[in-house]
Design goal:
Number of helices: 5
Helix content: 25-40%
Strand order of the largest sheet: 3-2-1-5-4
Shape: globular
Order of helices and strands: HHEEEHHEEH
Structural class: alpha+beta
Number of domains: 1
Amino acid sequence: MSFPLSPAGQSYARPDAAEVARALDAADAARSSDDPSGHRAARTACAILAAAVWDELTGFDPEAPFDAVGLELVLNAFGDVMTTGQLWRADGSEFAIVDGVWLHDVCDWTSLLTGDNASTWSPLCSPLPSLAPGASRFRLDLVRAARAE
């Protein structure tokens, strides 16, 4: 899967929905056969998370500027991954998406990320200090996630 380069004024271009859908279909098929841990689905989920952040911050306006480059992921002691909605801008400043509907919707995609397939998605992340025993925090690089291949 390849994605277009970022337009001026945006930290990355929105991953193409049709390409992401094809990749997700292939990942789902592989998950039931030769990829039981969901490595392909996990990589595709990272691209979908980048698209979801793009959609939320631009209001689906392809010309709208934004500069989000990181999304917080938390891996709990049970091997489940979630996001808090915490984001980082290119300048390092932090902000959060607090829309409960958006956070609920992206849980569908973070649920494809697990401790079992962390070797697929964690290379797209930087580790963050843990805030709770048994939990690991990561900063997903949205620019790299959007260019999923």
